[in-house]
Amino acid sequence: MKNQKAIVETRSLAIGYRSSGTERTIASHLDLQLRPGSLVCLLGSNGAGKSTLMRTLSGLQPALTGEITIDNRPLDDLKPAELAQKLSLVLTDRIDAGNLTAREVVALGRTPYTGWLGTLTKDDHSQIAHSIEQTGITPLLDRHMHQLSDGERQKVMLARALAQDTPLILLDEPTAHLDLPNRVEMMRLLHTLARGMHKAILLSTHELDLALQTADELWLMHPDGKILAGLPEDLVLSGAFEATFARNGFSFDRTTGTFIIHQPADNAQICLEGAAKPLFWIKRALQREGLGISAHRDAPCLIKVFEAENGFEAEISFQNKQVKVSSVQALIGQMHVFFPSPHIRV
Ligand SMILES: Nc1ncnc2c1ncn2[C@@H]1O[C@H](COP(=O)(O)OP(=O)(O)OP(=O)(O)O)[C@@H](O)[C@H]1O
Predict the structure, then answer these.
(1) I want to staple 120 with a disulfide (CB 3.0 to 4.6 A). Which of 17, 124, 307, 338 is the partner?
(2) Distance 38 CA to ligand 1 centre (A)
(3) Is the separation of the CB atoms in 276 and 255 below 8 Å?
(4) Do 245 and 280 fall within a single domain?
C-alpha cells in the first residue's frame, strides 16, 4: 500500500482547542498519510485526542496550525458538497435523527448526489440497497431511529456512510456499542471495503486486539501529543505499542499479543515446559495467582505439560515429590499446598 498515493495528507498539523485567547494543543507536528485500500486504526488512551483528530481531519473543527489535503486539495478549499463526495464520517455521539426511519437515514447518504429536490435515481436506489445488504440492517429499515438500540443505530449510520459512497471513510469508535460477534463483523466489513473497494478507512477504537489483527496500519496516539504510524507488527516488535498503553499493574506480552494483568508475584519458583497450548493457559492462571515463572529448569518446582485427549496432563515435581494433575484447578490447588502464600486463593 505504501506506493499508493495518499488521499489524506497532513503536514506539520497541530490539533487542539482555542477559546477566549487561550490555546490548548492536543497533538502537533503531525505528518500523516492515509492511502486508498488501507484500513487504519487510531489508538490511544482516553483523552489522548482521537476524536479531536477525527473532527479536524473531517473539517468539523479547525486545525491550530499546519495543513490537511484531501485528494491533493487543501481541506479548507473544499466546498461542503465537494467534501461530502470525498469523505463520510460516522460519529458515536447520540444521533439526533428526529423521527426518521432507518431507511430514510440511509437514503440521506445520497444527499451529496441528488439535486435540491432530493429525488433518488436508479443508481441511488441501488447504492442504498447495497449498503443495506452489506451492513445487514434489513430488519431495522422501517423502525424509527429513536426505537433502535445503540448498536443497531451504529450499524444504520455505517450503512448511511456506505450509501454516501466516498473514497474516504472516518469512523469514531464504530464498535463502541457492539457485542463481540458484531464487533468482529464490523471490522471484517471495514477491512473488506478497504481492500475490495479500495477505500481509505480511518477508525478510532479501544479494541486493541481487533485493531492488531485487522488494521493495515496503526496510528498510536501518545499522551505527549505525538502519533506513531506503522504496521501493527512493527509497532509491537519495537515496543511502541506497549509503551502507548503502559500502566502499573499490567503489561503487553509481545510473544502472545495479549495484555497480562500482574498480581504481585512471588519469587520465580516455577519452571514450565511442554505443550504450548495448555502451557499458555496454565501460565496465565499461575500469574493470576501471583506465582513467579522461572525460565530455569533448576527452579524449585518443575511442571511438565503434555497434551491429552481431553485437555492436558501435567507432572509437577517439587522437593522429590511428584504429582500428576489434569486440570488447571487441580494444578493451582497443588501449588497452594507447595507454596502456601497469601496470594494463592483456593
Ligand atoms: N471542546 C473542547 N475544548 C477543550 N478541550 C477539549 C474539548 N473537547 C475535548 N477536549 C480535550 O481534548 C483532549 C482530547 O479529547 P478527545 O475527545 O479528542 O480524546 P479521545 O482520545 O477521543 O478520548 P476518549 O478515548 O476518551 O474518547 C482531552 O483532554 C479533552 O478533555
Answers:
(1) 124
(2) 26
(3) no
(4) no
Q: 298-313, pLDDT tens digit by residue?
A: 889 999 999 998 899 9
Nearest-atom number in ligand 1 for the CA of 52 is 18
Picking from 222, 253, 284, the residue at the C-terminal end of a domain is 253
164 CA from centroid of ligand 1 (Å) = 27
Whether 118 has a pLDDT exceeding 80, the answer reads: no
Question: How many domains does the chain fold into?
Answer: 2
Domain around 114: 8-253
Tell me the CA–centroid distance for residue 323 and ligand 1, in Å. Answer: 55
- Output the CA 26–ligand 1 centroid distance in Å: 8
Q: Whose CA is closest to atom 2 on ligand 1? A: 17
Residue of 26, 177, 202, 205 with the most ligand 1 atoms within 8 Å of its CB, for mutation:
26
Residue nearest to atom 31 of ligand 1 (CA): 47
- Describe the crossing of helices 180-197 and 150-164 by its angle, rounded to 10 degrees: 10
State yes or no: pLDDT of 187 exceeds 60.
yes
Q: 245 and 279: one domain?
A: no
245 and 279 within one domain: no
Q: Compute φ and ψ for 296, nearest 5 degrees.
A: -105, 135
Residue 345 lies in a domain: no
DSSP line for 261-276? EPPPPPSEEEEEEE-H
What pTM was computed for the model?
0.82
| 30-50 pLDDT tens trace | 999 999 999 999 999 999 999
Strand-pair partners of 23 = 18
213 and 275 housed in the same domain: no
Do 106 and 187 reside in the same domain of the chain?
yes
Indicate whether 37 belongs to any domain: yes
Q: The domain that contains 136 carries what CATH number?
A: 3.40.50.300
**Distance from the CA of 225 to the center of ligand 1, in angstroms?**
12
The string of DSSP letters for 157-216 reads: HHHHHHHHT-SEEEEESTTTT--HHHHHHHHHHHHHHHHHH--EEEEE-S-HHHHHHH-S
